[in-house]
Amino acid sequence: MSIASHPRARLRRAAWAALALFAACAAQAQQAAAPGWTASRPIRLVVPYPAGGGTDIAARMVAGGIAGSLGQPMVVENKPGANGVIAADYVYESAPDAGTLLFGSADVVSISPHTYPNIKFKPDGFSAVAPIAKIGVVLAGRPGLPARTVAELVAGARERQYTYAHWGPGSNGRIGMEIFQSQSGVQKMLDVPYLGTAPALLALLAGQVDLMLVPTPLVIANRAKLQVYGVASPQRYAGLKDVPTLAEQGYPVDADIWFGVLAPPGTPQPAIEAMRREFGRVVNDPAVQARMIEQGLQPDSAGAAGFADFVKAENHRWGAVIQSAGIRIGG
Fold first, then answer.
1. pTM score
2. How many Å separate Cα 194 from the centre of its chain?
3. What are 297's strand-pairing partners?
């Protein structure tokens, strides 16, 4: 018997072959699971509004799902001011290493370029990463406001000047109310700006203002304290199925807010692709989707393929609305 044909030699060869096969399979599995890019430092997800508002709620939900799956922890950083322009400019001028991301929204990316002068960022200049969700806004009144229906509200607004809170002169909370006034034919309401959604809602709950377009998560959390009139959206929201749209009541207003993740211009494509996979994984997770719906968010699981085109289209849509309404900062 030759050495090569000895049973122990055959066993060793079989063992080495099995080990080589295992190593190859493990390498393939690791390659398939690996994002192809990992962060070299903690990733900052910059939220352009204070903590506690609808944007902040959505951002923290997503960041919690990402955790450290991109190689480093993801940290939410609130940077409010100028209806999100401060945060957007900051991220736009950050190093294109995917270490700083913007949790962008319609207010910031679609509306602010048409209402704020001298902004540094360009909506089409960001590297579009992934859509996250949409959030509706609900026309709501302060506790004790006599009007119980939209019809009663409109009748009252024609007799007296209502005040309404919003989270910035160029926010969709302001512009959506301008659209509602135009649709209802009421006299000019008095707008009262606040630094963010949470402070504006606190003013409404305290009775300091009469009305506000409140993001759906905050309506769900404060439903018992508010007069709820209708959703300013083309369709009802899953988390508020019993609340009709304003359009159903004769006042078509579309003030939906979209949320999505944007990176600085020039961010390397491998980083973009890795982040798209991870954000897509989180948004498509049934447990995360259930939490989003429970919080008043509508998950956007369409994927990132058309996100850049969507951002461009929304910029044009809101630009047309703002131009038609003649809205200007300080106006």
1. 0.74
2. 19
3. 135
How would CATH label the architecture of 43-134+256-325?
3-Layer(aba) Sandwich (3.40)
Band of pLDDT at residue 63, cut at 50, 70 and 90 = very high
**Where are the domain boundaries for CATH 3.40.190.150 in the chain?**
43-134+256-325
The yes-or-no verdict on residue 131 having pLDDT over 60 is yes
Q: What is the DSSP secondary-structure string of 179-204? A: HHHHHHTPPPPEEEE-SSHHHHHHHH
DSSP annotation of 252:
-
Distance between CA atoms of 220 and 114, rounded to whole angstroms? 31
pLDDT at 15: 41
Residue 77 identity (one-letter amino acid): E
**What are the tens digits of pLDDT across the range 252-303?**
998 988 999 999 999 999 999 999 999 999 999 999 999 988 888 889 876 7
Neighbours of 19 (CB within 10 A): 10
Percentage of the residues of the chain whose pLDDT score is greater than 90 = 57
3-state secondary structure (DSSP) of residue 327: coil
Domain 137-249 has CATH 1.10.1200.10: no
Q: What does the alpha-carbon distance between residue 84 and residue 168 come to, in Å, rounded to a whole number?
A: 9
Instruction: Give the CA radius of gyration of the chain.
Output: 25
